[in-house]
Amino acid sequence: MTDQATDDDLAHRQRVDALLRQGKNVYQPLYNYPYPQAFAALRPCADRCRAVEASMGGAVAGRRLWDMGCSLGYNTLWFVDRGMTGTGIDIDPRNVALCREISRWTPGEARFKQGELSREMVEAMKPGSHDYGFLFSMLHHVIETRGLAYVQAMMQALTARIPVLYVELALRSEVPPPGYDWARHLPEDELAIFATCEGLSFQLIGRFPTHVGPVTRPIYRVSRGREN
Ligand SMILES: C[S@@+](CC[C@H](N)C(=O)[O-])C[C@H]1O[C@@H](n2cnc3c(N)ncnc32)[C@H](O)[C@@H]1O
């Protein structure tokens, strides 16, 4: 039994290390992973999770989370560890494979799947199927590839389906790392992605450092009506 457990564990660690080696980068720490992480993360996540959790005012356990662009699953798993059920989605199959590997270290209900954020995906979502949506540092990629008008229409559909969103938004004033070109596609006002939505409340919950440069990124809580 012990030998079997050790073999499984070794194979798991080897798979994790191989996956970490494969990708473009290691954006997040591996949540609850009990072994040394072979490659350091580009940025921490606990700072953002703590601020988001504080803004939820205790409405955490039993809530349903949709985490789009979930990377290595840290933010999803942090909240699953605190009693949410979580669905993490990422375009990168390597990220999804890593999320599935490391989710064994966090009790609770976390599901990870591969997917590309699109208007069709959002429109297919049943209204009320999630309590919170996270879109952290991923919408600038979508603005770059699909344009602002597309993202605005998508945010209209998304805010009609999920009552509270948390968005971390890259800013036009940032200088992207070599090989990236998203900044010049971004609007002057980062909240312009919600310009065609009506009846939303915005609460700035903090500004957070990134690996990209000295500019900190805001996280907003976006909710319908006055339900902050
Ligand atoms: C800069 S990382 C941010 C990761 C995480 N949300 C965070 O802030 O810690 C962007 C993530 O979004 C994913 N991504 C980029 N474009 C996407 C898209 N169109 N649909 C789904 N995921 C996407 C990337 O693979 C990557 O994991």
From TrEMBL:
InterPro entries: Methyltransf_25, SAM-dependent_MTases_sf. Residues 67-158 form the Methyltransferase domain. Transmembrane segments: none annotated. Gene3D superfamilies: Vaccinia Virus protein VP39. This is Methyltransferase domain-containing protein. It comes from Paracoccus zhejiangensis. The lineage of its organism: Bacteria, Pseudomonadati, Pseudomonadota, Alphaproteobacteria, Rhodobacterales.
